[in-house]
Backbone:
């Protein structure tokens, strides 16, 4: 078993080393988003209200899948609001969210599930549904590794948006590490479900280029996503590139078509323009 050094301690990759958790506590409340429940609800609702206007598309079907960003809300919240704004008309039918995001803090071989019974936010706890992932654990397609989730922000920052849009829901959270497009797509196919299941891939786009360069690179990435062309996603196109690539492959298999909803960067929202991070929102139906 290969070991990886994280924060000064060795953490096993996928397949072992998990530590049992009951409720996964919020790790970035007060950092990426407000820790106060009322303030958090108000901020999310504001992003959703503004996002709905951008997401409205006559005759658009309820999305089966979304790609949304995961930075601090002051930077990427408006773009996430556009993505989740596309759900509002069909929110009542969605009860389960399969949530994939990159593992930033722990190196993971493949895809890692959590043993937690729930993930907490200031808005309450979101129950984790373990049944759908059990066959994938048995086959080895997914492992359990709580350390991949304990301090990870990419999944956590999606939860308040999901809570405000969907209300009562369950999640299947998966941290994505070193996995091929095919591996991720096979897991998504296994968890596909019906109209009750939404797939969400959490990813930012380019990182720390100047504004004009980021606009060009992110436009190329957006074109690759809309064209369902994972082979055109460059290594640095998105921190969630592996999850995005798997979603594009699964979308093609299942005859979904993506739609670009929003494409901006931190220079457009709340930051300087010398080094920016790109954000995109895409809906698949």
Residues:
């Amino acid at each position: 078993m290969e070991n990886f050094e994280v924060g000064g301690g060795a953490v096993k990759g996928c397949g072992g080393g998990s530590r049992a958790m009951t409720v996964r506590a919020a790790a970035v409340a007060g950092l990426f988003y407000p820790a106060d429940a009322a303030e958090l609800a108000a901020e999310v609702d504001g992003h959703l209200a503004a996002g709905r206007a951008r997401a409205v598309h006559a005759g658009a079907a309820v999305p089966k899948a979304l790609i949304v960003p995961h930075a601090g809300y002051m930077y990427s919240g408006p773009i996430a609001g556009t993505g989740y704004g596309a759900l509002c008309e069909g929110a009542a039918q969605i009860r389960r969210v399969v949530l994939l995001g990159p593992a930033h803090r722990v190196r993971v071989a493949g895809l890692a599930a959590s043993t937690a019974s729930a993930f907490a936010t200031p808005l309450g706890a979101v129950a984790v549904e373990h049944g759908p992932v059990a066959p994938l654990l048995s086959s080895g397609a997914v492992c359990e590794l709580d350390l991949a989730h304990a301090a990870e922000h990419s999944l956590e920052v999606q939860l308040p948006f999901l809570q405000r849009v969907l209300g009562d829901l369950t999640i299947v959270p998966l941290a994505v590490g070193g996995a091929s497009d095919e591996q991720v797509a096979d897991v998504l196919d296994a968890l596909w479900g019906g109209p009750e299941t939404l797939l969400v891939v959490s990813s930012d786009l380019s990182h720390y280029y100047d504004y004009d360069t980021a606009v060009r690179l992110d436009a190329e990435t957006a074109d690759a996503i809309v064209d369902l062309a994972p082979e055109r996603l460059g290594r640095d196109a998105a921190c969630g590139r592996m999850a995005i690539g798997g979603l594009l492959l699964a979308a093609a298999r299942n005859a979904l078509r993506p739609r670009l909803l929003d494409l901006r960067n931190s220079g457009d929202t709340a930051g300087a323009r010398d080094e920016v991070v790109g954000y995109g929102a895409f809906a698949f139906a």
